[in-house]
Every structure is written in structure tokens, then in C-alpha cells.
Amino acid sequence: MKKIATAKTAKATAKAEVTEKVCTRCGKVLPIDAFRTHKSGFVLNQCKECERIANNARAKAKKGTATVAKVAAPATPTTFNVTTKNGKSYNVSSTPISGGRKIVSTASDKVLFVAPGVTRDEARAIYATYAKVSYTGISASLVD
């Protein structure tokens, strides 16, 4: 059966050719040849090397011969500065700080942690500035 060229297929072939892609598992920028291509033409998100590591680890875990090895995620900074609207700068973290405050909001899925000594109102101001949300629904609780 012969395929008929349609406007949709012509549009797809007219797109710019992608030469590099970022692996979602290891975070490396690799040539497109390092990724497996689905029969539909979609280029998968994990590089062949990460797929191989995951498949081997899964097979070993299934046999019970080894534990599942994980490829380290790309390093992201856990502490950073947030400057509020009144000009004060605070060190905040994406990981818990003992004795500090955990800040969450119903309007965003982001979670921040601030150092001990930051008041509840300051913590709410930090979160509102960082997540660009209103103060409504922001809660700041103490971390043990």
C-alpha cells in the first residue's frame, strides 16, 4: 500500500533537523545518534548508554543477583539566594534545614526551606517572591 503525502507529513519533513539532545537520565548533551528512535520516528529521551545500564540493572534485580544501580541525576544546587521585594536577601534550600522552616503553597508545587531565625512572615515573603504567587495559601512550618 502506497502512502499519500499530506500537508501534515510535508510539514513534519520541513522542520529543522535536530542534531543534539539532552538525556533525561544522565543530563548529558549528546548527538542524536546516541538515542534510540521509535518506529514512529520519535527520538526517545534516554540515551542508549543509560537504557543499557537500566536494563542490565533491572535484569539483575529480577534474578536477585544485584541491587538496582541508578545513574546519578545532574547536580542541581540545593542552596541559593532569594531577594524579597523589600530588598532583603535570604539563603534558601530545596533540602530540609534542621531547625528552619518548610514553606509550601497550595498555588505551587515548589517546596523551600529557610534557615533558623527566619520569621513566618519573612518565609512567606521569600516564597511569594520565589514562586511568583500571592501570600494566600502559603504556609511555613518548623522543621525538626
Number of strands: 9
What is the succession of H and E elements? Answer: HEEEEHEEEEHE
Q: Any idea what the shape is? A: elongated
Tally of distinct domains: 2
Number of helices: 3
Distance between the termini: 67 Å
Describe what is shown at a glance.
With 144 residues, the chain is an alpha+beta fold.
Descriptive notes:
The chain has 144 residues and is of the alpha+beta class. It has 2 domains: 58 residues, Wheat Germ Agglutinin (Isolectin 2), domain 1 (2-Layer Sandwich), CATH 3.30.60; 64 residues, no CATH class. The protein has 3 helices and 9 strands, in the order H-E-E-E-E-H-E-E-E-E-H-E. The strands form 3 sheets. The protein has a 5-stranded antiparallel β-sheet with strand order 5-6-8-7-9, covered by helices on one side. Strands 1-2 form a two-stranded antiparallel ribbon. A two-stranded antiparallel sheet has the order 3-4. A hairpin with a 5-residue loop joins strand 3 and strand 4. The termini are far apart.
Task: Itemize the secondary structure elements and their pairings.
Blueprint: H1 7-14, E1 20-22, E2 29-31, E3 35-37, E4 43-47, H2 48-63, E5 79-83, E6 89-93, E7 101-105, E8 112-114, H3 120-131, E9 138-142
Antiparallel strand pairs: 1-2, 3-4, 5-6, 6-8, 7-8, 7-9
Give the tags.
144 residues; alpha+beta; Wheat Germ Agglutinin (Isolectin 2), domain 1; 2 domains; five-stranded antiparallel beta sheet; two-stranded antiparallel ribbon; 3 helices; 9 strands; 26% strand
